[in-house]
Amino acid sequence: VFLFSCNAGLLELSLGKFRNVVLNRSSPVEAVTRDIASNVTVIVFQVHAQQSDVVISFDKHPSVNSSGIGVDKGLVSILRLQQTVCTWYLRALDVSQVLSTAISIPYMERDPIPGGCNLEFDLEVDPNIYLDYTLVDTHIKFAPANLGYARGANPPSCDSGTAQNSRWRLRYDVYQYFLPENLLSEMVLMSHIQKMSEVQSIKANGIKMLSLTTDDKTNVYFSSLPGQGVIYNVIVWDPLWNTSAAYIPAHTYACSFADLVDNCSTLSKPSTKVFFTTLAVLGLFTCFFGHRFWKTDLFFMGFIFAAFFFFVFITRITGLGYDVRLILTAAAGIVGGLLLVASWWRFGSVLLCMYFIGLVLGFLFSSVVFFTPLGDYRVFHDDVVFWVTFSSVALMIPVLFVGCPRILNIMASGIVGSYTVILAIACYVYTSLSYITLDLLRRILNDYFSRAYTNVPFQRNDFIILSVWTMLALSGVTVQLRQERSKVPFPPHPYLTWKRERERRSTNVLDPSHHIPPLRERISNKLLHIKEFFHKEQPAGERTPLLL
Asked: Label partner for 23 (CA 20 to 30 A): which of 195, 217, 302, 467?
């Protein structure tokens, strides 16, 4: 339960209890925690806002070394002997009013101190997680912790060696927590940030992504999820005393609330919606009738294959805008689809066409495999291991189905066609299923994306859309199997069929088609017939009515 509190600029805080407060720029709020027990040696004070920066400080007039600015900021107060009261100051940085929530968390002398061995940031003891993001990845970093110590004692040295009696025995667990999908309000964040602030609630609600030792760098990368709220935190653990402490949780939506275009409420550009909606219409048709309309199926698969690799190519070598690249990609996809159809018409090779179709299905299947938690194993952060494994899984599909190409084609058209519908839905409603292929595209286009952990939320929307995908794919495969069970596996070679028909007509004089005039003469006769139809009959001499 949250209470709004701020009487005459004073915010009374009880240890471990959240309080909501509205901050303004002109007058700071004094936050006070009283009646601190003698066994408490450290208090971590923190404040959180959704999008507007707040200033937090030890003094009413903050200085660089005694304050912090941001949406998720905290301070560590090292208690003196006999100290029972702690005071901090809060105010908004730029805007007139900011809704925020604050809490003070106590720790004992054996608990590690988050950020106690800070050498990089301004605060002497810095418990904050510093977060920055791009549309591709999110980067968090934090200062190393120190061992806890009693009130009035000197802090343990941060550079006294790597023995087990130093900070080098500490371990760091990085946690991730997803806010509910499509909910971007301040109150949603305020109600969920509390679940990632204290050690026990972090372990109960967060997802443990990885563990670091003191030898590892204290920075981690994650894939960005624009429009999806994510909270990160770190628990530092002392294995000797089996005690833990939490850093200050940091949140991001990987987007801007203030931008008029491409903000957190806009899931995709209009050009993206047009592209994937059009592709979904063709994909839905292919899902149910792909094998029956063989050339349409070839065009669809050739479009996907050519468009994907052309988009990668043009993005890496040019600096063109996104909309221009998407138009060129669509054009390249059309050319690729037509080329695959033309190759079938000229060569009639089922194996060649099924190789491309099998690769498209294998590509999607391998992407699904690495979309699971398997993809976040550290071994796959190595590009060589990842691409060798990914290619092997993708090539496995056409190899396994080499003896039954019709089944392969029906499965490919059903599964791939239905997935394009999911991509179109993702343009209008947030779903993590779009990241099946998007994270792979990010890895191809960005040299350093391999270091990012690609975990995504799987919530109610995702279960519904996954059910839609499964239903469409199963229905499409079932309908096509029933349609094609009594027909030949594939249509005959079109070029040879045309050639044999032409030779037959030229040699068999008994065949009525032998006497059909050439195409040019038929067109000329047709045009002449149309011209005569509109020609007005001229009078031929005098005309009189018949006399009875």
From this structure: 195
